[in-house]
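Quick one, T. Sequence first:
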Amino acid sequence: MISCSFENGSAAQLRHVCVNAIVVKDNQVLLGKRATFKGKKILEAGKWGLIGGFFERDEYLEDALRREVMEESGWEIDHLRLLRINDNPMRPMEDRQNVDMIFITEAKKKKGSPDEEISNLRWFRIDELPPKEMIAFDHWEHLFLYQKYLKNPFPLPTWGSIDRYISGYAS
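Structure tokens:
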């Protein structure tokens, strides 16, 4: 958690805000095997996870998602759809509480290589994922929800700047 103080002097423990992507291409999803970062073993190293990470200061949600996917996989993405917001304060293996926004995205173009947080990238058929115990944190829940969505599509939440919804309607 992030410690800070408010204008009135009271202290607070804030949550990290994260983005993760279910990157889809040819009916497969891209997972990254978590590695070490700057010489330190990161949480859940050796397990497969969704591609994503933390917001940077002054970053919009879509920008954060695109940046994290590019950094960790080298892929440009398109057709971003919010699947869910995960605000579970009891997420497994976390040393802090993260609020995580999980998107369904489409792989558009490979332009780079994964950064040092990822030791391996691999495309998996959605019905041939690694075992639950080999998937980092609670990412298996998001993959399971995505499987349900594919079988029986349900309405996805709205997200983003209000400007994208009202442009063209302002007087």
